[in-house]
Specification:
single chain, five-stranded mixed sheet
Length: 111
């Protein structure tokens, strides 16, 4: 499930605690890597990790949230499991590495 939204730091903290698994994808509209990686991350999450809520946020429109999370470059990806940050990546990431890093905790939690 993909959610596109604008969050305050407070509303984000509440959202994360209300969902078992949340993945944040921060992007910038002028970032070529962001725009290339985004559909691939979306497809991977939808096909292999369907219980993760994917939240896609424009970092320019959510500067306060991005700053609070110390996301200084885009694309930025953070995975939260049971309200706690489990995985973080900034910039270009290989999808195979990305999948490997989240597969085991996902399987432990949901399968």
């Amino acid at each position: 499930m993909e959610v596109l939204n604008k969050f305050t730091p407070e509303s984000w903290a509440f959202f994360v605690t209300q969902n078992d698994a949340v993945m944040l994808y921060l992007y910038n509209t002028n970032c070529g890597i962001c725009n290339t990686l985004r559909p691939k991350v979306t497809a991977l999450v939808e096909q292999k990790f369907p219980k993760i809520k994917l939240v896609i946020i424009n970092a320019e429109e959510n500067q306060e949230l991005a700053a609070q999370m110390r996301m200084l470059s885009v694309p930025g990806i953070i995975l939260y499991l049971e309200g706690k940050e489990f995985f973080r990546a900034n910039g270009l990431i290989a999808l195979s590495d990305f999948e490997l890093k989240i597969r085991r905790p996902y399987e432990i939690m949901f399968e």
